[in-house]
């Protein structure tokens, strides 16, 4: 068996959670391979809405195993907030959740350091979710991090104290006032206490050697779906650095983040929205600063599921999408939130960029400020509700034209179309 992959082709928030949830019944195992609680995967069904940050989106299906892979970084406090919410909703998430021993921990001081570093950057700040992502990955790659497996070892307290001390020195050197900083509404000391309580509870979870678990499961014929977080345009190597997250969000990250050989990668499902959004700072070539942008935000309820921040909105960006398809080796496309464009008489598609006298078809090294100007093609909108659509054949001709243009430009068919938040509002071109 191979590992299928599902990931975002834009700047995150493409609606991956919903699609993973729709796909879950077809897979035995759902695996998160990178990122941490900066992610926010929203899933709605039976009138209830859940936002997952660390737990894989297959958790709602009791027959599916979910694994948090070695490439993920985990904040125990946030993990248990999530697990407790699921338990209160009548589920038993601990039964079908495994955690790789090699995943790294996010310490309270990683969150503190994230805030201190962002504060220091002033106007040049990344717009981080302040969940400690950058500092925790910095410690991982600097070989100072603490892994989940370490919490079961006798020297854990000593390692924790040492790393905390180092972090506090750094925070002091940055001249940051930690007394004013709040963590989920708490001061540092109370937060640290709660964090330790959650850490104790983590010992009761199923901690395992994730790479062996996944490879042996595949050998035994089990199917695996790797669930990406953030989006391709936030990848540490290929996004508009430094306005990126600190992990490889692309297909390549699945191999290192789960312990899987490249030849075991199967189908790659690439998810994109019918328009674009971005939360945080950094280049966004097709961003709208007008009434159309406001309308997208309102219709699409474009507010961050992790931070609540309003998302920046803009037209679909084909050079960025083609770049993402290439980097990930996408073979299936999924278009989300088409219904958000229901009320637009005219819809624009960015087909290429202009840079000086040159026309660029791909995403360039430099994309900020005035370095590139998006070139648009206008198309007639469908200007009506999609609520009655039950299959791809029901969709209005203008939406069909829009999809056909995207398919031609992307070089791939759109196999799935999402027209609303519910599981049932998902139209498939064919049985995949
Ligand atoms: P960090 O990953 O929290 O350090 O944030 C780095 C950048 O990635 C910021 O612009 C965040 O807003 C953005 N970001 C991080 N996680 C997500 C996500 O799951 N969806 C969308 N944007 C994200």
Sum this structure up briefly.
The protein is α/β, with parallel strands linked by helices.
Structure description:
- By secondary structure, the protein is α/β, with parallel strands linked by helices.
- The chain folds into three domains: 3-100 and 206-268, Adenylosuccinate Synthetase, subunit A, domain 1 (Adenylosuccinate Synthetase, Chain A, domain 1), CATH 3.40.440; 104-202, Adenylosuccinate Synthetase, subunit A, domain 2 (Orthogonal Bundle), CATH 1.10.300.10; 272-428, Adenylosuccinate Synthetase, subunit A, domain 3 (Adenylosuccinate Synthetase, Chain A, domain 3, Alpha-Beta Complex).
- It contains eleven helices and 20 strands.
- It has helices at 16-23, 76-88, 108-121, 133-141, 156-173, 188-202, 210-219, 252-258, 291-299, 318-328, 397-410; strands at 3-8, 29-32, 41-45, 48-52, 65-68, 73-74, 97-100, 104-105, 206-208, 224-227, 265-273, 276-278, 312-314, 316-317, 332-336, 346-355, 358-360, 373-380, 414-418, 426-428.
- It has a ten-stranded mixed beta sheet with strand order 9-7-5-2-10-1-11-15-19-20, sandwiched between helices. Strands 14, 16, 17 and 18 form a four-stranded mixed beta sheet that branches.
- The longest helix has 18 residues, at 156-173.
- It is globular.
- The chain starts with a strand and ends with a strand.
- Bound molecules: inosinic acid.
